[in-house]
Protein 1
Amino acid sequence: MNQLHKMTAESNALFVSRASSVPQEHAYRRGPRIVAIETVVPHDIMPGLLAVRIHTDAGSVGGVPVIGHGETYYIPTAAAAVLHDFMSHRLLGSDARAIESHWRFLFERMTAFGGTGAEFRALSAVDVALWDIAGQLAEQPVWRLLGGPVRDLVPVYNSCGGPLYGRTNRQAPTSVGWPGHGDSGQPGPLEDNYASVHTPADLAEELVQLGYKGMKLWSFDAVYRRQGGHFLSAKDVREGIAPFEQIRERVGDSIELMLDGHGFFSLAAARRIAEGMRAIRPLWMEDVLRPDSVEAMAAFRAEIDVPIAVSEMLIMADHYRQVLDARAADYVMIDPTWVGGITATRRIADLAQLYNVPTLMHDCTGPFTLLAGINVAAAHCGVAFQETVRAHIATLYPLLIDENVKIADGHIAIPTRPGIGARWLPELFQPEHPGYRRSSL
Ligand SMILES: [Mg+2]
C-alpha cells in the first residue's frame, strides 16, 4: 500500500468509527462470552412472566457460577421469540460485559422495523441479566457499578394487589383475564385489593403499624369493570373515593395515599375523579387518564389540583421527554423491564431529574423488575419511591427466587450480594417444561 492509499484508508476508518452509531465489529467480541440463553414461562406461578438466564464462559466467581438473571412481563412467549429468534444472533459468542454496545445495536436493529413491544421487553430482560453478570464478575452489587450508593434504604409503598393478582385466571375466577385489568380479590390474608375496598381503614392501620409510609389503591377499577371508563356518575365517584375517606378518618395523615386508575378513564371521567380526590390530598394520582395524548395529559394536569404520576405505560425515552417538556407530570413512573432495562431506566431518571421531576419505580410484574428498580434507586438521587406488592413478595417470589426481598419499616435495604441481588430458583429451568426455550453456541 503506498503512502496515499494508507492515509486514505486510515482516514476512512476514522470517519467510519466516528460517524457510525453501530458498534465496531471487534469491540464486543472480547469476553467473557455469552454461550447460552434460557427462558421459561412459569405458567403455574406467574403466567405473564418471562424468566431469563444468560450463561457465560466465565466459570465461577467466589464459587458461584456466573449467570445473568433477568425478566420481563406480558405476552412472555412473544418476548421469548424475539430473544431466541432475533437477539441471540447478536448475543451468543459476544462479550457479556459490552452492555451498552449490545443495547444500542439491538435497539437500532429492532426499531428499524417499528419494534417497541415484545422487542423492548426482550431487550429489557437481556439488559437486566447483563448488568447482573457485570456485578457478579466485579464481585459488587449492580448499584455499585452504577455509581451508588446514594442511600442505604429505598423507601417503598404498598400497592394493594392480592396474592392472585397476575397469577392465574383459573385461580382468580373474578378476573376478566387481561393483564392490567386485575381482579377484585377475595377475603383473606394479604388480599389487599379486596381489603382496600371493603375494610380500607383496617388495612391502612395494619400498614401503618408495619411502618409503611404509603399505600396505593385501585378503588375505581370496579367502576370501570362494571361500565367502562367513559362516564362516571356522582355515585360512582363517591364509591371510588369512599375508601380514601375512611382511611383518612382512621389514620389521618400517617400514611401517604395514591390512586392508580390503570389508564381506564376518559378525560371527562378523569376530571370527576380529580374533583373528588382533591379533598383527599393524595401524594399522586396515576393513570386516571389514559396516557394516549401528551397534550391531553398536560391540559388535564394544568386544570386539576392533584399531583399526577405518568406512567409505566410509556416505553420510549422520548415519550418521557415529551411528557416532561409539556409539564404533564409531577412524577414519572418507570418499569425497568419494559423500557429497556437498567440502562434505559437510568437514562430516563436522569432526564426527569433535569426537569426536577422525581422518578417512581414500577413493580407488580416480577422479582427482577423490583430488584432492577432497587438497584437504580440505590444509585440515583432522583428516585422517590419504589412500588411493592407485599402479597407478591410473600406468596409468589419465594417460588421464584433464592433470596427474597425484605421490607422493614417501609423500606428495602439495598442488596449486598454481587450482582442484582437474587437468582432464579434453578428448578424453574427444566428443559421438559412446556414454557422452556434455550439457544446456545
Ligand atoms: Mg400503575
Protein 2
Amino acid sequence: MRQAGSGSPALTVLWLQSGGCGGCSMSLLCADTTDFHGQLRDAGIDLLWHPSLSLASGHELTALLAEITSGRQRLDALCVEGSLLRGPNGSGRFHMLAGTGRAMIDWVRELAGIARHVVAVGSCAAWGGITAGGSNPTDACGLQYEDEHPGGLLGAAFRARGGLPVINVAGCPTHPNWVTDTLMALAADGFQAGDLDSLNRPRFYADQLVHHGCTRNEYYEFKASAEKPSDLGCMMEHMGCKGTQVHADCNTRLWNGEGSCTRGGYACIACTEPGFQEPGHPFHQTPKLAGIPIGLPTDMPKAWFVALASLSKSATPRRVRLNAVADHLVVPPVAKKTRLK
Ligand code: SF4
Ligand code: SF4
C-alpha cells in the first residue's frame, strides 16, 4: 500500500462528467471538511483533473489524457459523473469531449480499461438516472447498469484492473462523504468485493435505510401520518416517503452536517435506487391498493404491516395524533415525575 506523504500518491483520480446536471460535483463541495483539497491530500489522493475544480483545461487536459493512455501517468480511479450518452445510433456523438474530436463514451471505455478502479458518482452514472428518463432520446445509460438491469456502457462482465466491478456511489445527488469515504477506502487499499451490496453500492452507506434515524420515527410507530406538506407526521402513508425501503444512511449521516430530505419536510423519493426517476406516480403521493401503501417496509410481510398499522393507530397518543397534522408542535410531551422508570 502506498502511503500518503511518501512522495507518490496512494490514489490518482481522474473525474469526468457526461450526461448529468453537475449536481454531484456541487454536492461534493459540501463535504464535511473545511479544507477539501487538504482532506484528499492527507488521504494520499491526487485529483489529477476535475472539470470544475481544476484550473487546467483545453490542451492541458488532452495532454494529461495522452499521458494516461500512454502509460506515463498512473490512473488508479476513474470517477464518472453523469450518465453515458450512447446516441445517436450508438455513435456517442451527443457528447463529444471538447478538443478531442472523440465521443465521451469512447474515452470512458478506454480509460475504464486502464484504471485500477472505476467509480460511478451518482445515480446517473450508476443506473442512467434522470437523464435516462422518459423516452430517453440520448440513449443514456449507466456505466454498468440500465436501471436495475446489468449491462450499461461497459457490460455486466466488466471488472476494473483491481478486480472490482464499477463501484456505484448512487444518489441524486450523491452524499459528498459517500464519495470521499469511497476514495479514501480505495486509497488505503481497504475496499474488497464484500464491501459492495448486490447493486455494487458501498455497503458502508447502502446497508442502512433512510428510515433509520428519521426524526419522524415516533409518528411512524403510531401510524400518525402527515396529510399535507409541512405536517410533522410520518410521510409514508400519504406523502410518498419510501424511507423504509431505501438503502442510504441519510438520517444518520446528515447532509451539510444537519439536514436530510425528511428533516426538511420532503419525502424520500429513493434517489439511490435504480429507476427512481420514474416511479409511476407523483413523487409526493403514496400509491395504494385498497387503502394500503403498495411499497411496504423492507423485510416486512404485508399481513404483519396491516396488523401492526391497525394496532398502532388504535393506540396513538393524542399528542402524537395532533402534532402529526400540524406544522409545529401543538402538544408537548407531558412532564411526569416518574424518575424516568
Ligand atoms: S417520514 Fe419516511 S423515513 Fe421518516 S419515519 Fe416516515 S417512513 Fe420513515
Ligand atoms: S433521503 Fe432519500 S431521496 Fe433524499 S437523498 Fe436520501 S436516499 Fe435520496
